[in-house]
């Protein structure tokens, strides 16, 4: 699931914005203001490793736009992290919160590191060192952090503990994705993947298709892909193929099984990083294929839920003519230059800022619960998630049908227009 060619993801995010700015006829000051982050920070992060040697990591925080409320975004740990990736994620989070009508802005942050190569104690020291750098830049009413790639509940709890120690007060609303026993929200782990499938369910209704008559291929079996696959199977769909990254081989593999994949079986041989145990998979009768084989499966639905830039001009021709929906569980998985190709083939793309918004929607629920110190049941959380995601999808779908637009264009127009109007109403531009 590595990038196939050098490119700048923030350039792609800006190109998407430029196109929508043209469609909306935004004035130049508004374009200039929304095209770049309001604030960003870069810093060195020295950490003592288990062997006693100091190692310096690189950290980034981008608070892209806060016109609609406190910024909200994930903290990712990834060895190939760049400031431009963080900028793009912050921009997309801004549109994601706007299109789902959340009272939040968009941000993103990260540390250039590889948790695979770090001990538990080293990861804790990175988390605490990161918070010491950002404790006065973030907070429950300013910039609310959360998990992203290769970070999870334990990382969030270490960060919260350090933040509270610095400020000498309890502030559970500072961060989301916490363990349930430490002011986390029930349903948070499932939320992003479930949100993807809620939008797929609604899209299939638009297409007049029954979900139990469909099959799907998933790229990624981490937090998003795993729970998307789980809900999809629960709703009656057939999981035809799952592609995952193998850190030991530094290679991606696709797994499929005659008659379809059983979610519980595959999940039982998957590690916390979403990597399938090759030997156990083959012993259970799984066929192991090259990682990109997920894209060429003869299925109705493709769910890219790994990294950005996974469907591009070099591989779009591999997609089966049977595919009717691409649900973007990842951020920026489809290059802009292939959108029109797919549209001409009749493929409906549920864009990332809508499809994978379930994570930030539930993070907002967690933020509210933490600030109130009153917590909801899992059924209540997932019911609220379903209602919120369904409403957002219907808003986008209705606008798209009314104006004869793709779902991506409709989602971006609604989002950018809401943010631009708020900036004008506040007198910022």
From TrEMBL:
Keywords attached to this entry: Oxidoreductase
Keyword Metal-binding: no
Positions of the Glutamate/phenylalanine/leucine/valine/L-tryptophan dehydrogenase C-terminal domain: 185-427
Keyword Ribosomal protein attached: no
Transmembrane segments: none
Site entry: Important for catalysis: 148
Signal peptide: none
Coiled-coil intervals, chain numbering: none
Gene Ontology MF terms in the entry: glutamate dehydrogenase (NAD+) activity
Origin superkingdom: Bacteria
GO BP annotation list: L-glutamate catabolic process
Protein family (similarity comment): Belongs to the Glu/Leu/Phe/Val dehydrogenases family.
Record protein name field: Glutamate dehydrogenase
